[in-house]
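Quick log. Single chain, no ligands specified.
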Amino acid sequence: MFRTVLFLLATTTLVFSSCEGGTELTKTFKNQSEEEIRLVLFNPVWGRPQGDTLTLLPMSDMQYYAGGGERRFFDYPDCLDEIDRIQVTLPSGKKLKKDIMDPANWTMESTGKNYQVHHCVFVITGADIE
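-> predicted structure:
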């Protein structure tokens, strides 16, 4: 009897711990240009700036978002989730040619099975600026 109870307890623990799942999403901007770039991100829900202006220094990376939790994204996440628009300015007066709001311009690397991690990256090179 004791072995049966112990077996059921161990099996139940294993089943519930292996079913735990969730999703984490990170968003990173990589500025591989010689230009300083400023971004203001607008939240689709509130329609106001989402946090402070991000300043991407030349040849630098900045992760601006890391979020998620248990079953945070029910479908495959979009790198532009929770972004309505992004205002881009360069102090030099130049313009960013690459469309930051085009999902095709983002790359995503995903890992994990029960707990998924999605890393979204937007890369800006010197060729993207005019």
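The longest strand covers residues 22-32.
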